[in-house]
Design goal:
By secondary structure, this protein is an alpha+beta fold. It has eight helices and 21 strands. Strands 12, 15, 16, 17, 18, 19, 20 and 21 form an eight-stranded mixed sheet that branches. The protein has a five-stranded antiparallel sheet with strand order 3-6-8-1-9, with no helix packed on it. The termini are far apart.
């Protein structure tokens, strides 16, 4: 007798209310194993895979790629395969469901065919453990940042990281058609997808999508063409957060120019030590972050956030540094937890890991939330200076400009020195100009003479 169950969109935590389906890794009628990835979804925080809570056969998929599903909506219906000699337990957050009428694959269930689920019992984004009905070779698969795309006509599955799968979906590229890719182990890369998209044969329908209607130009000239691009997922959350920051925070800015000569000398010395020890390189950015932690310890008023209901100021005891990172999906801010407790080598390794996983799209939502102070390294983009936008609801953000050889006055003489502009944007409700100035001045003194940090370590 069929044991049809509903698997609901998991509550991924951190206040996320919905997910967008990027890609289905299974199809209707396909047999799935316990913990086998069912699909890739994009939240406002990250791109993640969702595993199956049971072994069985897929009866229905709750949405098509590009659809947004609320937490608690039906993600999939599965005809569960019971373990020999046992009844089929129901994991928390799921419920048996009556057999629905036939539906088109990829469409939501008809009204009235879903089974209610008690509040607070949604499935979570974790595996469900070993299934006694499966052999040792079919136990839980380890989820990685690269997953298989749906099989093509030849039965092969293309390997591609989530951001590349999303790009392929947006450009209408069939990943299975271009696999294996040029990446390690045949992984399809962004370059592979862009190359495929440049030929008309890779588009759905064997021709590029039609251009949007042209609006007549003013004055009878050539028609003006405009593309309307829908914004969702991470980019939509970024836009919302920036707008909230500008609307709610009365920000002010101040900046200083720092001579980075000794900082670069220290970086060269530590770089040799890191290379010999096989650890990630210690970059000037990491050193500035480490010195910033010391400056914040002396000036904790900026490691804070404003509370409207008080009004009050919440001064955070721990320093969770947000690292502004440019990725294919937009600006992400992975978080280094308890930065004040990490030695320089450990801080370098954590920053390296978080940035790499942010760009690969494999960070968890928890790794992208909870920062108390953010650092934006726009110098890595070649910019000399800029005014960063505070990462709401934090009280301040530090922007680092590019380190370049520039004219600089030393002992009354103009000489060429590697300098950088440090810009602090801060919530003027939380701190005044004197407090912001003390933090920035202290940071500059540490950058120009990093050996002073020894007094604090």
């Amino acid at each position: 007798m069929p044991d049809l169950r509903e698997f609901l969109v998991p509550d991924l935590g951190e206040g996320l209310a919905d997910v967008t389906v990027v890609e289905w890794l299974v199809s209707v009628g396909e047999a799935v194993a316990l913990n086998q990835p069912l699909c890739v979804v994009e939240t406002a925080k990250a791109t993640v895979e969702i595993p199956s809570p049971w072994s069985g056969a897929v009866v229905e998929l709750g949405g098509s790629p590009g659809d947004t599903l609320e937490v608690g909506a039906v993600l999939a219906r599965i005809d569960v395969e019971p373990a020999p000699g046992t009844s089929s337990p129901t994991p928390p957050g799921t419920s048996p469901a009556p057999a629905p009428p036939p539906t088109r694959p990829g469409t939501p269930a008809a009204p009235g065919t879903s089974s209610p689920t008690p509040p607070g019992t949604r499935a979570t984004l974790v595996g469900y453990g070993p299934d006694p009905s499966l052999g040792p070779r079919r136990q839980r698969r380890r989820r990685t940042g690269v997953a298989a795309a749906p099989a093509g006509a030849g039965g092969a599955r293309a390997l591609a990281p989530p951001p590349v799968r999303k790009l392929a979906l947006d450009l209408g590229v069939d990943l299975a058609a271009i696999a294996p890719g040029s990446g390690p182990g045949g992984t399809v890369t962004r370059k592979d997808v862009c190359a495929a998209a440049s030929t008309s044969a890779t588009w759905s329908g064997a021709s590029p999508p039609a251009a949007p209607p042209s609006a007549p130009a003013v004055g009878g000239g050539p028609a003006a063409v405009a593309d309307v691009v829908q914004v969702g997922g991470v980019r939509a959350r970024i836009a919302q957060n920036l707008a909230t920051s500008r609307q709610r925070i009365p920000d002010a800015t101040c900046s200083v120019v720092a001579d980075c000569t000794r900082l670069l000398e220290l970086r060269a010395t530590l770089g040799e030590a890191a290379a010999s020890g096989g650890t990630p390189p210690v970059t000037p950015f990491v050193l500035v972050c480490r010195l910033l932690v010391l400056a914040l310890r002396e000036n904790p008023a900026l490691n804070a956030s404003w509370i409207d209901d008080g009004p009050a100021v919440r001064v955070h005891r721990s320093m969770h540094l947000g690292i502004g990172t440019a990725t294919e999906r937009g600006l992400l801010v992975p978080v280094v937890r308890d930065a004040e407790r990490r030695p320089t080598r450990e801080l370098a390794a954590e920053v390296h890991r978080l940035v790499a996983q942010a760009r690969a799209g494999t960070l968890t939502p928890a790794e992208l939330t909870g920062s108390t102070f953010t650092v934006s390294n726009f110098g890595a983009l070649g910019l000399d200076e800029g005014i960063p936008v505070i990462n709401y609801p934090e009280a301040a953000i530090l922007g680092l400009g590019a380190i370049r050889q520039r004219p600089h006055v030393v002992d009354g003489e103009v000489v060429a020195r590697p300098t950088a502009t440090l810009t602090l944007a801060f919530d003027h409700r939380v701190a005044d100009g004197a407090e912001a100035g003390r933090l920035l001045s202290r940071l500059r003194s540490l950058v120009e003479a990093p050996e002073l940090a020894l007094w604090e370590l």
